[in-house]
Amino acid sequence: PFLRLLEAQLQDQKREHEEEVEALKNQVDAMKEELEKQHQAFLQTLQLSPEAQVEFGLQQEITRLTNENLDLKELLEKLEKNEKKLKKQLKIYMKKVQDFEASQVTVPAERRQHERNMQVVVQRKEKDFQGMLEYYKEDEPLLIRNLVT
């Protein structure tokens, strides 16, 4: 069971690494394309008269700023949608907290302590410890032997 857990963790890390490498390769390719475009534009501007070079440069800057502006508007829209969603979730959670607090008034102290203990356990189960391993003390020699081999 321990080796399978370790193998699964290793496979997950390998998959994540491969995805990262692929994303970086795509980013490098995009940068190469952009560099090539800029190089071609630079070669074209060298052949133009000084006035035409200035006008071409201004046109390029206007295009760049327009694209950047559109990207920022898109980002703003996404953030506004996310803000609305989070506000809705906050209202829902606030209502749940109020309901829970109202129910706590009627629940005996002994039961409240039991519920708190259960909440702590649930919180611990939800945490994701990458690289951590849970095992029984009596299985330690077997685990160490498997790790060494």
Q: Ends: how far apart?
A: 16 Å
Low-confidence stretches: 121-125
Report the β-strand fraction as a percent range: under 5%
Q: What structural class should be given to the helix and strand makeup?
A: mainly alpha
Largest sheet: number of strands, sense, barrel closure: none
Instruction: Please estimate the helix content.
Output: over 70%
Q: Give the mean pLDDT.
A: 84
Spatial shape: flat
Number of helices: 4
DSSP strand count: 0
As a whole number of angstroms, the C-alpha radius of gyration is 29 Å
Written as H for each helix and E for each strand, in order along the chain, the element string is: HHHH
Describe the structure.
With 149 residues, the chain is mainly α. Helix content is 87%, strand content 0%. The longest helix has 57 residues, at 50-106. Keywords: Coiled coil.
Question: Which terms would index this structure?
Answer:
0% strand; MYO5B protein; coiled coil; 149 residues; flat; mainly alpha
Describe what is shown at a glance.
With about 150 residues, the chain is mostly helical. It is about 85% helix and about 0% strand. The protein has 4 helices and no strands.
Secondary structure blueprint with pairings:
Blueprint lengths: L1 H45 L3 H57 L2 H18 L13 H9 L1
